[in-house]
Amino acid sequence: MGLSWLRYKRASEVIQQMHRKRINRYLEYWNGIAPRSHQEYYERWLFAFMSIRTMWRDNVKLFEAIRLLPTEFTEEQLRQCLIENRSGMINNRTRGIWNFHRDFWENPVAWYPSLGEPVSECRDRLIERIFGMGIAKVSFVMEMAFPSTCDIVCIDVHLARLYGLRDPYERRMTPTAYRRIEEHWTQHCQDRDIPAAIARHVYWDHVQGQGSTSYWSHVFEKAA
Fold first, then answer.
1. 8 is in which domain, residue-wise?
2. What values do phi and psi take at 153, rounded to 5?
3. With bands split at pLDDT 50, 70 and 90, how would you rate the model's confidence at 2?
4. Are residues 109 and 138 in the same domain?
């Protein structure tokens, strides 16, 4: 219990120590590159698919490669793109992206929060709909799409370690543990009037020694 309490206390302190000026700068940037079309929203999902078990440099490279596919690409073209760019997890990634691609363009509106639906409920609904992407990555999409109103957080490896989970990739985080951490993070962010997603970006970049997310999020800047 002591370790758990200390870890939660440390996470609270991390949020409390975030500078308002930096928060505002991040928020302005992310609101500026938030998707404004179905295509841009669709691309946030592709980016998240490419982030699964991938370091950020490879994530960017893979995303830029798949972005070059024809609008009406085939499943085989998708597979070949993933193979040629050594994406790993070829079968699962192909199946997940292909199923999502067809389902999304059949009815894009179904992939957004409906009127009055919190982002958290939309996230949970879409987890049941998509193949090959769990709670953390669907949360990542929501963060990128709705940076100022997202009431959830992507618990990535750095955030998991902050809460005392040493190897979240090797030891699968239980849904209960995920939601407990998420509730703590979002509540403390709310207490400081900081969007939970923005706080996570700030913390991630602090760990990476970066002053902005643009070292990877630049892939969305041109469209914005």
1. 1-34+147-224
2. -150, 145
3. very low
4. yes
Q: Rounded to whole angstroms, how far apart are CA atoms 127 and 167?
A: 23
Across 117-152, b (16+ Cβ under 10 Å) vs e yields: eebbebbeebeeebebbebbbbbbbbbbbbbeebbb
Give this prediction's pTM.
0.93
Answer whether 121's CB lies under 8 Å from 128's CB: no
Token pair of 214 as six digits: 């643009």
Please give the pLDDT value at position 1. Answer: 37
**CA pair distance 24, 82, nearest whole angstrom:** 37
Q: Which of 105, 124, 146 marks a domain boundary?
A: 146
Q: What is the pLDDT of residues 178-208, one digit of tens each?
A: 999 999 999 999 999 999 999 999 999 999 9
Tell me the C-alpha distance between 22 and 19, whole Å.
5
pLDDT, mean of residues 136-159:
95
The number of domains in the chain is 2
Dmax (CA) of the chain: 55
φ/ψ of residue 87, rounded to 5: -75, -25
**Are 147 and 27 in contact, with CB atoms under 8 Å apart?**
yes
Considering the domain architecture, whether residues 167 and 84 belong to the same structural domain is answered as: no
